[in-house]
Write a structure and sequence with these properties.
Distance between the termini: 50 Å
Number of strands: 0
Structural class: mainly alpha
Oligomer: single chain
Helix content: over 70%
Radius of gyration: 21 Å
């Protein structure tokens, strides 16, 4: 007997166990902590350099611009770092190896043709 259309859409039934989810999460993070931290550091390097610049004494108007640059960089680079780390973790959960270069290349903005 073939599955009904509803069964085909629903897929196999499985139960969600919070313990299993946490176990997998900590397992992936534990095995890849150093590479994930390095990817995050590399992506956030521009923000770190801007932060260094904002700590120097500046006239008030220039300090505002550095503060704005810091906020924008932090926002954009945070999104890219999240994308890179999420991609690497999902690949790991799928059982596929994912290097730092691959994670960084997936996180970078797409170039226009």
């Amino acid at each position: 007997m073939s599955p009904t259309p509803r069964e085909m859409l629903d897929g196999p039934r499985s139960t969600f166990q919070i313990g299993d989810a946490l176990s997998k999460t900590f397992s992936v993070w534990g095995r890849n902590l150093l590479p994930l931290l390095i990817v995050t550091l590399i992506v956030n390097l521009p923000t770190i350099l801007i932060l260094r610049q904002t700590l120097l004494p500046h006239p008030p108007k220039e300090a505002q611009y550095w503060g704005l640059a810091m906020n924008l960089s932090s926002w954009v680079m945070g999104i890219l770092a999240t994308g890179a780390v999420t991609y690497a973790v999902v690949q790991q959960l799928r059982g596929r190896p994912c290097g730092m270069g691959e994670a960084l290349s997936v996180a970078r903005p797409a170039s226009s043709p």
